[in-house]
Structures are given as structure tokens and as C-alpha cells.
């Protein structure tokens, strides 16, 4: 990790990259490693886009694996372990193989550095490492996600991709890619190579009724692109054949792939069972409290809106299923006692046991004034209410003030900022923070300020678990979003 960390440059967004002619320099690095010619032998699916490109790559991987091919996937960023960026046949590369290929690339590049050619920055090095791994592992299909943009991205050293695709576009990295969709599209389209053939988009209606491995209605668009990319890859590599031409329906292999795809930190639901909990079945009626994390690394305005829709639908489905289970269980108990159930708990009454929490952070280069309203307004339209000196927490307190202003129309006095002392690391908001006047929700004028800055994630997880432990009839539904780095750190603490 020390070597990897040494490659991280302190470049800020909007600044010019530390090296110019990135693709020319990438070619020099590849030539040093003897990879420059071998890259052209890889059958590459190259994917760019503002949002959904990683998910599209994972869908492609799952489809082609079901078709019997050995796959390699390069995505970014990683959530917990850098090895997540390099998948072979659907799983992260092993530690032994990662170290073998890492030191091979590192040592040979270090031996050939000069004043004019230093060691590559982190993402360039990881891109080079991906090519090294996929060539050495002799994958049938190499699926490569663009890092940033496309035209000037280090992955665009690929000269002869088998097929390229672009996912949904949005306003992100505008200080680098431009502040119009046309300028952004120009960068993304830079991965296309001549001769260029445009395939017809796959009709999402053909996937009606299919349960995708990745949650969220937006994933059907990513899945549709993955179907087109996979079909084109099979055709161009001579592997389509009569097997897949029997009818216009999706081949069984495609359906299985779309249904089994998995990608951590993207519309992921984790049921927490803390070391202090004796509950092995999170939905058991005998379980104490429930702590459910809804994790999505959304960090652009469009993806925040998509995340909010997914979260709203997910919590509604959970509440309905919980309500149905409650009525069935009570009906069975009543029949056992020789009488019928005359009344059951209504959904409105059941909802009182739910508390929804937003666990949010974003990089200081993001604009929370744009991100948070998308989240709040989309949840509100789905009837999901928003009542929800060594360390510098000023950015987090700024996020809190913005959140309070959006949800309550004015800035509230924080529970922590005024008397915060970094020496006292155990300062946490009281549990009444969640439960006082909860039945009145966001429409009450007597509520406490319902947001707080907690100085670390471990303390945050502890606080949430303590809330559930001390209030056993409560279910906490925690939406974690704003940053893939935040999502990764939470997953690490939950040991998932």
C-alpha cells in the first residue's frame, strides 16, 4: 500500500494533469513492459459514460461468463480493497496473483524511470496493471471501464476495441469535460474508433418481468446496453452462431447473467447483525431492533435522484412485506387460540416503528446545494419524509447547515458544533434525537434539530447500533450516499 500511495498526486479538480500527452506517455509505459502489441490481441469491451458504466461492465461480465467465456473486468474506484478493481471470472483477483503482477510492473517501470519519464500517477499505473493482468491471465473478454471522460483517459490507449458503449450522460466533472452535454458527449465519444458501426439499442420491454441482479429501475437501461454490447461482442468474435438466433427473445445465458450480476456499493441493501445482537434472522418477529443499510455511491445530481427513487421504492416494499408478515403471523396466533383476528395493525400504525436516517458525506469539490435538494425532493414526491482540533469537521458542519436549510427552511443550531472538542471523541447526540415526537414526523414544530455531525464513522455505526439495542421495537433504515468512498468505509466497518 505504501507504493500505491506514493503514486497518488495532489492534483485538485480543474487543475491541469501533472503530465501532458497522457496517451503518448501511456504508450511508452506499455512499451517498457512489452504490452503495447499484446493489448491489440485482447477482445475488449470499452465503456464510457457519466453514470452506470461500472454496472454495465458488470452486466457484460455476467452475460459472457454464462456464455462460457473467461472474463476480466477493470472498474474504479474500489470500495475496500484495491483488488476489487481487477475481476477475473467474476471474483476479485487473488492476493498472490495481484502481488505477482504488481511487483512485475512496478520493478520494471522503476528501473526505466528518467528525469523525463517518472513513475506513472495512480490511475495510469492501475490501468497498466489491468492490461498486464488480463494479458497474462489470457481472458477471452476484457471489459474496461473509462476512468474520466474518454478521449483523454488513460484507458483510451486501446486502439482496436471489439465494441464500445456509452451509458447515460450527466453534468459531472464539468471543470474538466465542459459545462454542456455536447462538450461532455464529445469526450465520451472519444473512445470510438473507425470504422464505426452503430448498433440499434436493445428494447428494455424484452426484459419485462426479469429480476436483475442489480437493484433499481435505472439498472434496466444499463442492462439493455450490456445486452447490446455482449451481442455485438459475440458477433464480432465469431461466437454468435445459430445457438443465439432461435428467436427474438433473450438467450437463457443472457437472462441468467443479468439475474446473477453483483456489484457492491451500488443500490445495495445490508441487514446489520452487530456483535451485540443475538438475532440471526433479521426479519424474525422475535428479533429486537433492526438496522438496515441502503448503500449507493451516488455523487452527481442525476444519480442522487436515481438513488432517491431506488431508496423510496425499497423502503416501501420492505414496509409492505413486513405488514403482510405481521397480519399473517397474528392470524395464525388467533386461530390457534380458537378465535378470529378482528383487527390488525394498520400500515400507518406499523410505520411508527420505522425511522429513516440519511448518512451523507461528499467531497468538498461537490456542490451539496445541488446534490441534497435532488435527494430531498425526489423522496418527498414518493411520500418519504425528510425528518430525518486535530480533525477539521468544518465541511461536515457546512453539509449539516445546508441539509437543515433545505429540509426545515432555516439553519438550526447543531447538536455538536457549538461545544465540540476533539479531545472528547465520545460526544454523540442523544437517542431522543430520533425518537422525541417521532409520531408527528417532519410536520411537528416541537422536534429537536434532526441532524448532527458525528466525528467518525466507527462512532456513527456504534451510535446506530446502540439506538436499535435500546429501542427493540424500532427499525432503522439508513440511506448511505454522496460518495463511493463513504459507502466503502461503511461496508468495511460492517465487514461486508
UniProtKB/TrEMBL annotation:
<keyword id="KW-0436">Ligase</keyword>
<protein>
    <recommendedName>
        <fullName>tetrahydrofolate synthase</fullName>
        <ecNumber>6.3.2.17</ecNumber>
    </recommendedName>
</protein>
<dbReference type="InterPro" id="IPR001645">
    <property type="entry name" value="Folylpolyglutamate_synth"/>
</dbReference>
<keyword id="KW-0067">ATP-binding</keyword>
<dbReference type="GO" id="GO:0006730">
    <property type="term" value="P:one-carbon metabolic process"/>
</dbReference>
<comment type="similarity">
    <text>Belongs to the folylpolyglutamate synthase family.</text>
</comment>
<keyword id="KW-0547">Nucleotide-binding</keyword>
<comment type="pathway">
    <text>Cofactor biosynthesis; tetrahydrofolylpolyglutamate biosynthesis.</text>
</comment>
<dbReference type="InterPro" id="IPR018109">
    <property type="entry name" value="Folylpolyglutamate_synth_CS"/>
</dbReference>
<keyword id="KW-0479">Metal-binding</keyword>
<dbReference type="GO" id="GO:0005524">
    <property type="term" value="F:ATP binding"/>
</dbReference>
<dbReference type="InterPro" id="IPR036615">
    <property type="entry name" value="Mur_ligase_C_dom_sf"/>
</dbReference>
<dbReference type="GO" id="GO:0004326">
    <property type="term" value="F:tetrahydrofolylpolyglutamate synthase activity"/>
</dbReference>
<keyword id="KW-0460">Magnesium</keyword>
<keyword id="KW-0554">One-carbon metabolism</keyword>
<dbReference type="InterPro" id="IPR036565">
    <property type="entry name" value="Mur-like_cat_sf"/>
</dbReference>
<dbReference type="GO" id="GO:0046872">
    <property type="term" value="F:metal ion binding"/>
</dbReference>
